[in-house]
Amino acid sequence: MNKKIAFFDSGIGGLTVLHEALQQLPEEQFLYYADTLHVPYGTKSADEVRGHVFDCAEAIVREHVKAIVVACNTATSLAVKDLRARYDIPVIGMEPAVKPAVEMNRESGRRVLVFATALTLSQSKYNELVSRVDDHHSVDSMPLPELVEWCEQLDFDPEKSAAYFRRKLADLDLKSYGTVVLGCTHYPFYSHILRTVLPEHVQIIDGSAGTVNRLKHLLELTEQHGKRPEEQVTFLSSGGQLEDQEKMKAALRYLDTMSK
Fold it and tell me: Residue 142's beta-bridge partner residues?
């Protein structure tokens, strides 16, 4: 039996990374696990989140998966090292795509704006990442907690979201920025709305493609082609409710419509 690749997040945000994997690896089978009992993570204490992540990881490995993708920047920053020490399967984490964003703007001298959860931004892992790659102190950061709440409610209202982005960005000189980094996996659900608010020259990137490329490298998976089967993803949640599964399926369908 072909073992599944597991994707884990506090809620539906990690579906943005799974969606990328579905495009690149249509012949693989996947398990998506959402910690719906404890979403969101970004507003909780570090110790709380670590405990929840370890509990979910135990539930996931009981499904005999061949790898775990921690499709959550906050969970990665707090627990990925310990998860790798606990389990003998590959554990792939996420981090905000600060390094490629800085490199993209090195010649132009434009700034980089990182959107992430407050908890991610407060962690030493994030600050060490910025210190390592940001030679010219060109990286700014901002939490967008409301987006996680709206996303979990499947609230993708374009007018409300665009107005929210305009309020958040009102005090910034957007002409000085070259790239916006979406450092929370929930945020790409709103990338097409953010695109309408930002100047045309500002690029929007996230860590999904890099994470899937890392997964392919660790599992020695080559490029695949084919149509995605209907039952390619098994959905599980800590809440264990049918409503959780239906919400995850609806969110994945929404990402499909965004990519068309």
Answer: 115
Is residue 184 annotated as a catalytic residue, yes or no?
yes
Task: Please give the pLDDT value at position 260.
Answer: 73
pLDDT at 87: 97
For 121, residues 6+ apart whose C-beta sits below 8 A from its C-beta are 114, 141, 143
Alpha helices, H only, 87-220:
98-104, 118-122, 124-133, 145-152, 158-169, 191-197, 208-219
Domain residue extents for the chain: 5-94+209-258, 98-206
Whether 151 is catalytic is no
The CATH architecture to which 5-94+209-258 belongs is 3-Layer(aba) Sandwich (3.40)
Q: Per the annotation, where are the binding residues for substrate?
A: 9-10, 41-42, 73-74, 185-186
Residue ranges, the chain, pLDDT below 50: none
Q: Which two tokens stand for residue 87?
A: 């389990």
Q: Which of 22, 184, 212, 248 is catalytic?
A: 184
Beta-bridge partners for 116: 143
Q: Do domains 5-94+209-258 and 98-206 have the same CATH topology?
A: yes
pLDDT tens per residue, range 20-74: 999 999 889 999 999 999 999 988 999 999 999 999 999 999 999 999 999 999 9
Domain 98-206 -> CATH class: alpha beta
Q: What is the pTM of this model?
A: 0.93
